[in-house]
Amino acid sequence: MKNKSPNSAKENFDIIIIGSGVGGLSAAICLAKAGKKVLVLEQHDVPGGWCHSFYLNGHRFTPGVHYVGLLGKGQSTAQLYEGLGIAENLTFFRMNPSAYEHAYIGEERFDFPGNFGELVEKLIERFPKEEKNIKKYLNLVRNVSAELQLLPNVEGFWQHVAIPFRTKNMGKYALFSLRRVIDWHIKDPLLKKILNIQFGDHGLAPSKASFPLHAAVMDHYFNGGYYPCGGGGAIVKAMTNAINENNGVVKTQQNVKRILLKGQKKKSAIGVELESGEKIFAKRIISNADPNTTYLNLIGEENLSSKLKRKLNKTTYSCTSLMLFLTVAMDLKAAGIDSGNIWLMPNEDLDTVYKKMMLPDITNDEAFQGMFFSCTTLKDPSSFDGLHHSIEAITYLDYDIFEKFQNEKDSRSPAYLQLKELLTEKMIKTIEKIIPNIRDHIVHCELGTPITNEYYINATRGSVYGTEKKLTQIGPFAYKAKSEISNLYLCGASIASHGVAGAGYSGVQTAGEILNKKQAELLEANGDQNIQLYDAEDSSNYPQWLINKIESKKRKVFVR
Length: 560
Fold this sequence. Notes:
The protein is of the alpha/beta class. The chain has 3 domains: 13-91 and 229-314 and 473-522, FAD/NAD(P)-binding domain (3-Layer(bba) Sandwich), CATH 3.50.50.60; 117-223, no CATH class; 319-457, no CATH class. The chain has 20 helices and 19 strands.
């Protein structure tokens, strides 16, 4: 049922947050806990942005959550959820600890174990001549990532002075590409491809990707990958419950038309106007939309400084995606599939592969060059009904292929539907490289396109990671949480970092700007908050409630 809009004549808010991605929800929790009157407005019919879950024929899918790292006690993602006060309401499954990632590179294969020491040993066993280089490079990756995590907690004059000494690796490698740094350290071409295979987690080829960013991605999973029980929607539910418990309000189907301003020379944000024409006022506005949507669509170019307009004109957005949501009636375990993700790439230079992925040949139905593939019902055993498995397969491409369809409304053109059918066939043929007979067992399939991303997520050019994460658009060059317009703030993947954890932390940092508090202060956990962690591959230690949930799911399908 559509939510009714707040009555602006009766209610004024301290903070209005536009968009309910995990960045906006994190900010809302922090601000609501601080006693602020918070309203979150979401254009979609469910909150969560990329983190939301949806159902096709009763089977759950989550477009933007495929795995999460650093969930062990004392690690950064766990600290985020503990500090937000939602850890007790979250359960995660650890993906195959001996192979949370499977890298298929041409005829070669390498499985990533979810343990740093084991990863080093396994790589040395495969590439003994590179032993010294492997140790040096992976320790550099860890050190750079650790130094990155120091920066949000730096405070005081002397700590700022000491940054170059505390972050010597960052200082040395911060402005170099992934390709440049790995070429300095690693010689074997296959080893380079294995170490760079996770480039899909930031969507940039090694020659364009920032080395520190890729180091942070790798380090995020050195202790393995986890998948939420209940999919990404379970994280969203825990966050929206926390907002409600602290007297905040989350409203869906509330499309913001523009941000209201006052003042001539020095402009201030004072509220929002909805598509319905209703105006809602607040002391501050946070936009969880990307910079292009925020500044050009909601503020208007005429209200921006020349400097900001130049920056917006130069800003590029990350690649977009095709995402196949597939339900199959077959024993995927017998087909060799487990809870680990699969990266499928040809044994070619990854920069070359990336170029081919961006502009695939759409004149035929041959398989794609690269793909990310995972089975959510093996990553989350509580979602398996005993018969049907859910698969999410993703490939990246350039938005230009779909640009001619961007202004189509609900009624799609024959040309769009024909292209979608062709691309679906290409996706299935790519999956067949891993599971040759899968076509015979498909119960339902649906393809999400860049146009889908725009429609549901309101992402500029269907981008999956917000702004492109190249060297000139991250860190000190990224958009700031505090905008040039008074009382207007931003959060999300384009501000601090992308991914479930990165976007979540961006919301905390934006709340800190408003409350004048450091990240550590806002994430000081109250009480004994612990995330429940279980193995996806081993049910021997499952609690009774989880066993009951799994059995109940299976009973339902057989009763049908």
